[in-house]
């Protein structure tokens, strides 16, 4: 599991998706032409959209890639020639993908929360002075630095201390993003934002399990296509996924709504995981260069 | 009279037919193979390219399911966890995770062998020293040369202290000095009681190391015998059983 998490975090693609999502979450509400008077809501929506879209891309691409690379490079043969059952191997790889995705989710949710916090401050300043400042500068700087500084630091550490670039960059991004929340921490805001962000992890978990199941049977392109079709089929169901009225009225996400989402998605994720494990159990393990 | 030794690997009437997406048979890689390997011997599986050696090894390891016949490994089915706990496998190409260092690679395989942390760390240290990679233990194996990757793969195969070592072309990609080191290692491990099943294209290597060989051609065993009892060089024996093959006729534009 840890080897898979390290593998996913070593992926340049994973780093790219994380950086793009962070940039999306930080920059979208900061652009000055969004002047509808509610920068905080814009920041929340941008952060959550980046978490959902970036999260789906991250979980699907990285899961398919880690499974297919294991098959096609022959390392799966090496692993399965040891005393490891194929089901165990499948679940360990899936858990490794989840662990890497969790790093992404924590990073992005933290950056988004920092931006939302900054937007609340910026919004308050706007209301007081009428100045166009949709997002508070310090929060904006923190959020953008969390995306930009880690790769630079990681490159320096790679050059002079032999640290692995992508893993170091991911770790620093997560650390800086989480640290950014501490700046003028607003517990009420966190209580509103984080449960919704947590709910968005659930569809990504389903799609990761589905992608792993597809990758256990088909090549990368076919597995990605199948995941895409599944996404298209699921889109109509996601319309009202986490938008109960209570959020509009300034409250927090009720626990029952989260529980409902969990009940709806957990069996799906488990079903796909079992399907993938059984597929791997029943087929010949080939591959290798 | 020869003492009766424990049979480690037994294949009876094993066949393997590969099929395409529509389940149509594409190639019969192994065809009615009978084979047995006893404890402590070094058994060589020889044959030309495409003769079914690697397919046979993968069936022995439980990676491929035979289309017919049966295989037993330590008296158990090859897919059984208990049987595979006693195996070390070196594939034809060194399949390694490029992002892991040599040390992490050995720890990863030690983990798959369910070794505790202290044992894993100690065996990792000893094996890295054995294969001469202690100095580069913390470099990612993706940047290793073919020979260095081969050494890491060999160490990975040994980390679980297997009773059966399965080597697919063990000297492939190694220079003559390293080749000799591997041959000496195989002989030493065999003397210590380890059973070895290996394939090789290099008949000289097989002759130096193996106690017994089987020659495969078109998925069938065409000859089997002890090295000392062949009565001729292994190369002559091999060519007599497999045939000289055809020589390339140079394409006209190359003349």
Q: Can you offer a commentary on this structure?
A:
The complex is a heterodimer of chains A (289) and B (255). Chain A has 11 helices and no strands. Chain A has 289 residues and is mainly α. In chain A, helix 5 (86-129) crosses helix 6. The mean pLDDT of chain A is 84. Chain B has 255 residues and is α/β, with parallel strands linked by helices. Chain B has helices at 53-60, 81-84, 102-112, 117-130, 146-158, 176-191, 203-209, 234-242; strands at residues 7-19, 25-38, 42-46, 68-73, 87-90, 164-168, 195-200, 212-217, 220-226. Chain B has a 6-stranded mixed sheet with strand order 5-6-7-3-8-9, with helices on both faces. Chain B has a 3-stranded antiparallel sheet with strand order 2-1-4, covered by helices on one side. In chain B, strand 8 (212-217) and strand 9 form a beta hairpin. The longest helix of chain B has 16 residues, at 176-191. The chains are: A mainly alpha (289), B alpha/beta (255). At the A-B interface, helix 1 and helix 4 of A face helix 2 and helix 3 of B.
Distance between the termini of chain B: 60 Å
Rg estimate of chain A, integer Å? 20 Å
How do the helices and strands follow one another from N- to C-terminus of chain A? HHHHHHHHHHH
Strand content of chain B: 25-35%
Greatest contact pair?
A: A-B, 23 and 32 residues
Helix segment tally of chain B? 8
Radius of gyration of chain B, taken over Cα atoms and rounded to an integer in Å:
19 Å
* Major β-sheet profile of chain B: 6 strands, mixed
- The low-confidence runs of chain A, each spanning 5 or more residues with pLDDT under 50, are none
What's the β-strand tally of chain A? Answer: 0
Proportion of residues in extended strands of chain A: under 5%
The helix/strand series of chain B, from N terminus to C terminus, equals: EEEHEHEHHHEHEHEEH
Shape of chain B: globular
Structural class of the secondary elements of chain B? Answer: alpha/beta
Instruction: Give the CA-based shape of chain A.
Output: globular
Mean pLDDT of chain B: 87
